Amino acid sequence: MSEPLAEELHRVGVVVATWEDTEQTLGCLRSLLGLEGAGGVFELRVVVSDDASSAPVFEELRRAVQAMAGEVELLRGSERSGYAATVNRGIAALQDFAPDFLWVLNNDTRLDPAALKALIMAARQQPQVAIWGSTVVAGIQGQTIECAGGYRYFPMSTRNAGVHASRPLSELQSLPTESLHYVHGAAMFFPASVLASVGGLCEDYFLYFEEQDLVRRLPQPAELGWCRGSLVYHVGAASTGGGGAGRSRMQQYYENLSTLRFTGRFYPWLLPWVFGSRLLLKPLLFAVRREWQLYSPFALAMADYLRGRPARRYQ
């Protein structure tokens, strides 16, 4: 049984990354402001970092944040710069707060009231862990585990698998602890010194693979942890603005470009296989599924990688 937390106030800086989604962001903020332990276990400062949402969406968010009871700082990027840059901008805004821990959250998450308290307890008991992941649950009121802390990644197939994915939440206490290759990016918790040691998230990817890249850049072997008692409910897809055909095209472009970048950087011997297999198999998959609209962003991503071109602001 875990020992109770001693009376020590921990400074936790929270960055909520958002783009074009006021409703989800406000839901996340309400759950943050309802966490157990504020003022007794931790002191919280929250920064909402917006990746250049349209003026009407940002103004709606600004007014809603101003009306909230808790202290929340709202930042807006001057142009779309991607997930990593948006998070890094939020972390930079927390420097004067000098946090002990950082918690990076997607705006489409909802937090169990004890989620942060559990993370702090775990981090104090195992200070050697570089990054902590929560029990991520699929859906706001879901009863199915999306992943237990994070994922395993298989570089040859470029597929990932959530640890204990699709298991019922009712089995949570009986699930074994298994090794992670990276922590789910929707909810990453770590000592502030960890991110400072590698200069923040890598901004080369724009979307996808920031979490994997972070783990690979940490001093090795980097220990990752799953905090079983920290529950985070995840809607999904909000970082790309939700669903729809336009969002699918955007996801196709960034996923392909980031996969090739990550593979070329950390598994260069696999790059010819990954590039060639995608070039052959993905168009066949689009044809079988009649997803004709995905050909163009896929081809553009492959061409941009070969040209060494920075990620486009794909809409």
What order do the helices and strands come in, and which of them pair?
Elements: E1 10-18, H1 22-33, E2 42-50, H2 55-66, E3 72-76, H3 83-93, E4 101-106, E5 109-111, H4 115-125, E6 131-138, E7 145-148, E8 150-154, E9 159-162, E10 182-183, E11 187-191, H5 192-198, H6 210-217, E12 224-234, H7 245-266, H8 271-289, H9 295-307
Parallel strand pairs: 1-2, 1-4, 2-3, 6-12
Antiparallel strand pairs: 4-11, 5-12, 6-7, 6-11, 8-9, 8-10
Helix pairs in contact: 1-2, 7-9
Polypeptide structure, described:
- The structure is a single chain.
- Helices cover 37% and strands 23% of the residues.
- The protein is an alpha/beta fold and 315 residues long.
- The protein folds into two domains: 230 residues, Spore Coat Polysaccharide Biosynthesis Protein SpsA, Chain A (Alpha-Beta Complex), CATH 3.90.550.10; 63 residues.
- The strands form two sheets. Strands 1, 2, 3, 4, 5, 6, 7, 11 and 12 form a nine-stranded mixed β-sheet that branches.
- Strand 8 and strand 9 form a beta hairpin.
- Helix 1 packs parallel to helix 2 and helix 7 packs parallel to helix 9.
- The termini are far apart.
